[in-house]
């Protein structure tokens, strides 16, 4: 064997790598890998609002060097794309690597004739607990929205309400709009934010919900990166009596030291990481024990291989998973999360935002949800297939996430 060249391996090769961009309800980028023995593996590469950048990365720079590679060499291919690019990390690169990684895991599990969770170590639990999303423009609307989720069987609910006097508010649908997680329009819409009013309004929301629903219901809240560390610390302290399940993304966490400050002031559990894409984004957070939940998605954190690396490191400090599951992660990305959720030891909870019916005209899924819990299903591999003909009926539509502004017009984190 010549040094530096891997010659051993399986004789199953990657025969083709195609990128499908479709918009059944919202934009999705899907990588379709085929092997020379006829299997088809899928990977999600959707980066909300920047979809075409990942599609080009895959089509122009990854597909040509994947063809002919050993389809079973998952770790080697991950390292080949990560180290081989020289330019490491970042959401576009890591979503592209994730798509390849998940498609290869899908192929390997199909080749074994097993659902993916079986080759990730098998079941560590019977079912996967998920949280749903409730919201309202006022507290009465929010209460009705929570009630509707309780009827669907959820025992954990993310709660978001418009800030009085400002309107809008992260995670709240505007009247008639139908969507509370918008990516819409040829240009971003702009939304106002006022930290003072927001921080004063959140305890009132928790007060109402605890009084209405009692102590058993798990209540989660997403701050969406909008506060300074000291504002976040104050918010956390003011909520302790209501025992939130967590506060998410209290401040922009690319400054990892910010969460150390928040942690010193409050015992409210903290979750972060949906915008992270590498284990290196978490090093200080783990060393400081500043967080309780890892929010990265399979899709944006380098696939099953990348996310598992993060979650194994998290486990050392008893930090648990809370895999990101917004609707901008496709059913392929969600399925990958569910297989990992079932196999992980340090599972915490899974986010479930619920894709619209149109999405399932393109993606046929084997996972299911009932009474607050998911099952990834027993189909071989990920258990998801893509109808390429149907995908053609839903061409890409430019759609952007909103931009936040303070009341004086300063651009703020959205
Ligand atoms: C949100 C996300 O799921 C969440 O917790 O923060 O929905 C996020 O806003 C989107 O993924 C942005 O594309
Ligand atoms: Mg979030």
UniProtKB/TrEMBL annotation:
Residues 139-269 form the Mandelate racemase/muconate lactonizing enzyme C-terminal domain. SMART domains: MR_MLE. GO terms for biological process: carbohydrate catabolic process. NCBIfam families: ManoateDhtManD, PRK15072.1. It comes from Rugosimonospora africana. GO terms for molecular function: hydro-lyase activity; magnesium ion binding. It holds the Pfam family MR_MLE_N. Gene3D superfamilies: Enolase-like C-terminal domain, Enolase-like, N-terminal domain. It comes from the Bacteria. InterPro entries: D-mannonate_dehydratase-like (IPR034589), DgoD-like (IPR034593), Enolase-like_C_sf (IPR036849), Enolase-like_N (IPR029017), Enolase_C-like (IPR029065), Mandelate_racemase_C (IPR013342), Mandelate_racemase_N_dom (IPR013341). This is Starvation-sensing protein RspA.
């Amino acid at each position: 064997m010549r040094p530096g060249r891997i010659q051993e391996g399986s004789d199953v090769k990657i025969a083709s790598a195609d990128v499908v961009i479709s918009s059944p309800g919202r934009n999705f980028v899907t990588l379709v890998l085929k092997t020379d023995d006829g299997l088809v593996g899928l990977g999600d590469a959707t980066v909300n609002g920047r979809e075409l950048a990942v599609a080009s990365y895959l089509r122009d720079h990854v597909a040509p060097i994947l063809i002919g590679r050993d389809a079973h060499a998952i770790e080697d291919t991950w390292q080949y794309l990560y180290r081989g690019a020289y330019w490491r990390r970042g959401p576009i690169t890591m979503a592209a690597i994730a798509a390849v990684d998940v498609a290869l895991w899908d192929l390997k599990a199909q080749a074994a004739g097993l659902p993916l969770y079986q080759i990730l170590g098998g079941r560590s639990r019977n079912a996967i607990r998920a949280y749903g999303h409730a919201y309202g423009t006022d507290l009465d609307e929010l209460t009705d929205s929570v009630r509707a989720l309780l009827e669907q069987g959820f025992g954990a609910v993310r709660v978001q309400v418009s800030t009085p006097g400002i309107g809008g508010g992260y995670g709240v649908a505007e009247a008639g709009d139908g969507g509370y997680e918008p990516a819409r329009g040829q240009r971003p819409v702009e939304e106002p934010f006022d930290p003072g009013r927001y921080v004063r309004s959140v305890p009132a929301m928790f007060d109402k919900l605890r009084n209405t629903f009692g102590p058993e219901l798990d209540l989660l809240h997403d701050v969406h990166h909008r506060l300074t560390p000291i504002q976040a610390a104050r918010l956390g302290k003011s909520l302790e009596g209501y025992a939130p399940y967590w506060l998410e993304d209290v401040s922009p966490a690319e400054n990892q030291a910010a969460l150390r400050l928040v942690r010193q002031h409050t015992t409210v559990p903290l979750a972060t990481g949906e915008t992270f894409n590498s284990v290196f984004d978490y090093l200080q957070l783990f060393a400081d024990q500043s967080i309780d939940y890892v929010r990265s998605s399979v899709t944006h954190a380098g696939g099953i291989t990348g996310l598992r690396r993060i979650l194994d490191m998290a486990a050392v400090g008893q930090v648990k998973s809370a895999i990101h599951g917004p609707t901008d992660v496709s059913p392929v990305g969600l399925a990958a999360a569910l297989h990992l959720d079932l196999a992980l030891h340090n599972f915490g909870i899974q986010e479930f935002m619920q894709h619209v019916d149109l999405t399932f005209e393109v993606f046929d899924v084997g996972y299911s949800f009932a009474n607050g819990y998911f099952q990834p299903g027993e189909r071989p591999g990920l258990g998801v297939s893509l109808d390429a003909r149907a995908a053609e009926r839903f061409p890409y539509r430019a759609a952007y996430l909103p931009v936040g502004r303070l009341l004086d017009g300063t651009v703020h984190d959205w």
